[in-house]
Amino acid sequence: xxxxxxxxxxxxxxxxxxxxxxxxxxxxxxxxxxxxxxxxxxxxxxxxxxxxxxxxxxxxxxxxxxxxxxxxxxxxxxxxxxxxxxxxxxxxxxxxxxxxxxxxxxxxxxxxxxxxxxxxxxxxxxxxxxxxxxxxxxxxxxxxxxxxxxxxxxxxxxxxx
Length: 161
Ligand SMILES: [Zn+2]
Known about the structure:
The protein is α+β, with helices and mostly antiparallel strands. The chain has one domain: Cytidine Deaminase, domain 2, CATH 3.40.140. The protein has 3 helices and 10 strands, in the order ββαββββαβαβββ. The longest helix is centred in the first third of the chain and has 14 residues. It binds zinc ion (ZN). The site of zinc ion has 6 residues, from β7.
């Protein structure tokens, strides 16, 4: 497995996932079987601030709730994880990830609404959060979609390059 890179059509926004991050995501999705799961994305921006480098993905927090077609991410343990990631390498909150089991990784209206709320929520300190969705079968025929949802704008799809 290799690193994955995504960018917006106008190249203003880019995102990069290390191969270890992709492996970790697929493993978390496999262990969730038919249920949705998810968590947060951690990493940092490039020096030119045009590329979000996702270094780590969290497990689903233990207070998350999930069903076959929905996931509500909990918050338990995330602050400690954020503190640890910051102290051990300057990695910070970049956005959210979740799994659409055996269907396309197309964001729902609810998914996009949540990201818009995060972009406006000062507590997150993240005006351009990423939404990463894993879709399909995480054991073989998976795909990953990435959108950036800048504060005050519609979601912008990032295309895999
Ligand atoms: Zn979704």
